[in-house]
Every structure is written in C-alpha cells, then in structure tokens.
Write a structure and sequence with these properties.
The chain is α/β, with parallel strands linked by helices and 204 residues long. It has nine helices and six strands. Strands 1, 2, 3, 4, 5 and 6 form a six-stranded parallel beta sheet that branches.
C-alpha cells in the first residue's frame, strides 16, 4: 500500500463547504496523512525539516487548495519556495522526491466550460497548472492530472457527497497502486478517468 500526503492550503477552511465535504474523516482511510499548512503554520514559519520528513515518508503527494486568482493561496507558494530546496528536491544531486507521484486537487468557483480559450478565463485549467507540472518535473516527480471540483457555489449537498465519494475512491485506488499512470495521464482530469473507468467496468 502506498502512503498519501495531502498538503492542504486553505486560509478559510472552516468556511469552505466544498473542502469540508471532500476532507471529512479523510484520515480514517489507511495510509493517508492530512497536513493542514495554515493550521500548522499560522505565522508562515514553515518547519522545513519536518516537511521534508513527511515528504520522504510518503509515496503520493497532493497539493490540495482552492483556486485563488488562477493560482494557490500564499502558504503553498511559501511551502514550495522553502521546502523544495536545490540539492535536496532538485538539481543534479537533488533526488529526494524522484519518482514520487504528485497532483493538484482543486476547488474552483468557475464552471469547467469557462476555462477555455474563447471563454471568460481564456485558458484551460491544465494550461494554468503548467508551473505546477514543471515544478514536479524539476523535482523528478511523476505529475498526473488534477482532481477538480468546479462551480462550488452552485453544488447541492448531494452533489458534494458524490464528489467526496469520488475523491475517496481516487485515494483508495492510488494507494492500492491500481491505475497504470501512463493511462491516467491521457485524461484532462482524474475525475474523467474515474468516471470513464467506472462506465467501462459497468459494461464488462
């Protein structure tokens, strides 16, 4: 079983209906560690040694955050800047994270169709995530598509329960090393892979 580290960066988590649904009792699943960065470091003074130890102990890393102005809350950028050090995470001798799997888990107020070249946000979400993908590549990690919840302000409780179920299923399957990562990487979102795979299983 692979161990999963969720790096949660949400400055107002207690007021986030969507994220509270997604992460409710998530640590009850075997092998999952939830690292709430804003709760742990309210002064932004990140314990680099502690964060490195957590990364070393886990096989799959998740950057979990709400999409703020096409990027992440400031804490996560701070975490990247101070934890992913040259000579440890990247550079010719920086191999500490090599071959670990990493992806973004995002919540976004905008609808999925609004992230397109001729729409309001002008770029696809995957294009906006290119810096994250390149950061993973720099650290010799395996980047896979994001898990995304769109239109968060419009979702019913029933829809949020389904997203939470899908997220738990994703974590379970990744932990059990079920998906072939090359097959997963052909999808725009991990949600798409899960739903497509479910449909294929139902027809077998």
């Amino acid at each position: 079983m692979k161990k999963i580290l969720i790096l949660l960066a949400h400055p107002r988590f207690e007021k986030s209906r969507t994220n509270r649904f997604l992460l409710d009792k998530i640590e009850e699943q075997p092998g999952i560690t939830l690292n709430d960065l804003y709760e742990r470091y309210p002064d932004f003074n990140i314990n680099v040694a502690s964060e490195k130890a957590l990364l070393t102990e886990h096989d799959i890393i998740i950057w979990h955050y709400p999409l703020y102005m096409y990027s992440a809350p400031a804490m996560l950028k701070q975490w990247i800047d101070v934890v992913l050090e040259y000579g440890w995470a990247h550079g010719s001798r920086g191999n500490a994270l090599k071959d670990k799997t990493i992806f973004n888990a995002l919540t976004a107020g905008g609808a999925r169709e609004s992230y397109a070249h001729n729409e309001h946000n002008r770029f696809t979400l995957r294009e906006l995530l290119v810096p994250w993908e390149q950061t993973a590549a720099l650290c010799k990690m395996i980047y896979i598509p994001p898990f995304v919840v769109h239109s968060t302000h419009l979702l019913t409780d029933q829809q949020l329960v389904e997203y939470a179920r899908l997220y738990r299923l994703l974590l379970q399957r990744l932990s059990n090393d079920e998906p072939h990562l090359e097959n997963v990487r052909q999808y725009e979102y991990l949600n798409d892979w899960l739903l497509t795979d479910k449909e294929q299983l139902n027809h077998e």
